[in-house]
């Protein structure tokens, strides 16, 4: 009682989450997909899919941030922004959300290293699926030159995405 009486006027004590807090995780995933619109030029595709990184970070941080079916519309938006064939991210992200739901039911506890390993597995599978799909479509994409650096940079960038998701989650819940 005393702390709330002495709090400053801008305090968010006992006010609950911010307005629109349910949509902030999805907006950060879309914003992560929009990072690919930056004018970064490279001969190989080493730039990680930040939409995927934010999706995995939010899902590992909070299983209740959104229902599993949100992966399909978010994957569609990612396909439209990034330039993937329509349906590739939809299928991959939906499968990842289902797999993460199964993992949540099977595991009792997870620490940071286990979550980083889970994220590394999902990032690697997504990049390999994108590489394989590009190869099936006739692109000349050697595995070591295209998918390898993207997997490495994506796995090493995941802690940044997890940190951003945690900070944004703290802000959106008013803590």
From TrEMBL:
Keywords for this protein: Cell membrane, Cell shape, Membrane, Transmembrane, Transmembrane helix
Localisation per UniProt entry: Cell membrane
InterPro entries: Cell_shape_determining_MreD
Bilayer topology annotation: Multi-pass membrane protein
Keyword Glycosyltransferase: no
Chief site of localization: membrane
GO annotation, cellular component aspect: plasma membrane
Transmembrane annotation, as ranges: 21-47, 67-100, 112-131, 143-166
Coiled coil: none
Annotated family: Belongs to the MreD family.
Name under which the protein is recorded: Rod shape-determining protein MreD
Taxonomic lineage from the root: Bacteria, Pseudomonadati, Pseudomonadota, Alphaproteobacteria, Sphingomonadales
